[in-house]
Specification:
Aspartate Aminotransferase, domain 2; globular; alpha/beta; 468 residues
Length: 468
């Protein structure tokens, strides 16, 4: 559920009916339908389709949205499979046993990709997205910590979780919803990501784990998991505290294995007990799919797994949702078969090449300073060069680009760096070198226009362009 505040102007519009184009009105049908109430009478399928189609048509062009990480394109064969599987309920493993088997195969494939010691004994599940996967990871960390504390006769009522101040908002939700103290290590110009520096000031006996991000949402940078683990090793040697790591690989866990295979961030790092990713980001599936894998069964407390009798079968489940689509799981399996390791490597390398090309070109413009160069995941950010202008900001540039169809968010960096505003580009599958050149041409033209101003742009407040 997404809460909405309705302005007076919006309230007036929402009260007005939806009028139908006379061309689409069939004999005997009403020429308008209520906007906020279920209509009293039926409509023909063609009429209902046209209303919804026309409404959705007003959304932006997803191919020009350089803000989102979420996949927006799949092949025709995948689209056909999606439609064929639209009725499958992932939770009903008795009715759809092959879909359940394919889910298990995909989780094992990911465990193998992420170097689990014994992939077939690793535990994993699909989720609605990475946010749900993060919630499950946090719950497992909390429950393991509680069991250990109680077994030692110690209180277990003040858990905390350590992470960077640049985490995605789902971690704030987890800590809020499950009564866990959120301990954020601030990023700085010297430490742009959580890198283990000063970690001993945040970790104590109540720490349930440390979250390392493989692809920070703000900038796309990797947090060095191995260095974080080394810092925790030193803390354990001094204090005896054995603190584990969860890797939030929403984006990077489907990039690093293919184009940075030598980087040790996954289960090769002994302290890593769980990893999540978004199938619908660089997993290349349509929205609605995440994955989480635990190193081995003992990393997921058994009392978190429910065994329920549902629709004729006995089924173990660990999820926040119950009924949910199974189609995206089949699409993930389709892509694993369709692309294989080599195909994924080509796709991700192409995205990386476009991102680093764009970063070089934008970084060479006098107006900008790069924050990072897109060499981790295919994402990079830049800031306005100090002293370049007093007449415009990155928010104004974002507005100008939006008029050309490009959605490029401008937003403040997290706490302690909030005075710095950056813009960010996410390069996804399908954003070609030609499209990058078209974007660069528009960017240069709009920067030229803004630089030609002889007085400041109006100081109208800009709402936050992107929520992390």
């Amino acid at each position: 559920m997404t809460p909405h505040r309705i302005s007076g102007q919006q309230r007036h519009r929402k009260a007005s009916p939806v009028e139908l184009n006379p061309v689409f009105v069939r004999p005997g049908e009403s020429s308008e339908v209520p906007r906020m109430r279920i209509p009293r009478d039926e409509s023909l399928p063609e009429t209902a389709y046209q209303i919804v189609h026309d409404e959705a048509m007003l959304d932006g062009n997803a191919r020009l949205n350089l803000a989102t990480f979420v996949g927006t394109w799949m092949e025709d064969e995948a689209n056909r499979l999606y439609l064929e599987a639209a009725d499958k309920n992932m939770i009903d493993k008795d009715e759809y046993p092959r879909t359940a088997e394919i889910e298990s195969r995909c989780a094992t494939m990911l465990a193998d990709l992420w170097h689990a010691p014994d992939p077939e004994r690793a535990v994993g599940t699909s989720t609605i997205g990475s946010s749900e996967a993060c919630m499950l990871a946090g719950l497992a960390l909390k429950r393991r910590w509680q069991h250990a504390r109680r077994a030692a006769g110690k209180p277990a009522d003040r858990p905390n979780l350590v992470m960077s101040s640049a985490v995605q908002v789902c971690w704030e939700k987890f800590c809020n919803y499950w009564d866990v103290e959120m301990r954020q290590v601030p990023v700085s110009m010297e430490h742009k990501v959580l890198d283990g520096d000063g970690l001993d000031g945040y970790v104590d006996e109540n720490t349930i784990g440390v979250v390392a991000i493989l692809g920070v949402t703000y900038t796309g940078m990797y947090e060095p998991v191995a260095r974080i683990a080394e810092a925790l090793d030193r803390i354990q040697a001094r204090t005896g505290l054995d603190v584990k790591i969860h890797v939030d690989g929403a984006s990077g866990a489907m990039v690093a294995p293919f184009i940075q295979p030598e980087l040790e961030w996954d289960f090769r790092v002994d302290r890593v007990v769980s990893i999540n990713t978004s199938g619908h980001k660089y997993g290349l599936v349509y929205p609605g799919l995440g994955w989480i894998v635990w190193r081995e069964a003992q990393c997921l407390p058994e009392d978190l797994v429910f065994r329920v009798s549902y629709l004729g079968g006995d089924m173990p489940t660990f999820a926040l949702n119950f009924s949910r689509p199974g189609a995206q799981v089949l699409l993930q399996y389709y892509l694993f078969l369709r692309l294989g390791f080599t195909g994924y490597r080509r796709v991700q390398q192409t995205c990386s090449d476009v991102a680093t090309y764009l970063a070089r070109e934008i970084g060479s413009m006098p107006a900008f300073d790069l924050w990072n160069d897109g060499s981790d995941i295919p994402v990079f950010a830049w800031r306005l060069h100090r002293g370049h202008t007093e007449n415009w900001t990155l928010h104004h540039l974002g507005d100008r680009l939006r008029m050309r169809g490009w959605l490029v968010p401008a937003y403040p960096m997290p706490a302690d760096l909030e005075e710095i505003t950056v813009q960010r580009v996410v390069v996804r599958n399908g954003f070609s070198r030609d499209m990058a050149d078209a974007f660069l041409a528009d960017l240069r033209e709009e920067v030229g226009y803004l630089d030609s101003l002889d007085s400041p742009m109006p100081g109208i407040g800009h709402p936050q362009a992107f929520h992390h």
